[in-house]
Specification:
Elements: H1 7-30, E1 31-40, H2 41-51, H3 56-59, H4 63-72, E2 76-80, E3 83-91, H5 94-102
Antiparallel strand pairs: 1-3, 2-3
Length: 111
């Protein structure tokens, strides 16, 4: 039959998947990925918290853990205006987020 993973391993794996899915969704909807871009950690973290305010997993993610998740996604720690920050992404402007939400559906799913 094979080995069965203990419940604690299953729970930790599920939590990791949820965190990564949530972070990936936030990156796609609220960030511009650009290797030359930078953003300070407090701005990114507060924006992520606002995005994920109803998610229980995100509520347990402190600033340090959030930074580890960004590092796992390949972003590099750096200084931005004297603050800790990240290279490789920036927050979208309000206009960029609005333009994305008004873009026509080209997926073919609405037909």
């Amino acid at each position: 039959e094979g080995l069965v993973a203990p419940e604690c391993i299953k729970a930790a794996s599920q939590e990791y998947r949820e965190e990564m899915d949530l972070l990936a969704g936030w990156l796609a909807s609220h960030c511009v990925l650009d290797r030359k871009a930078t953003a300070d950690t407090p701005s990114l973290y507060h924006n992520f918290l606002a995005y994920s305010q109803d998610d229980q997993v995100a509520k347990g993610l402190n600033s340090r853990a959030f930074g580890r998740k960004l590092h796992t996604h390949g972003f590099q720690a750096c200084k931005v205006d004297g603050k800790r920050g990240w290279r490789g992404l920036r927050l979208k402007t309000d206009d960029e987020r609005l333009a994305r939400s008004k873009a026509p559906d080209t997926s073919g799913e609405g037909r």
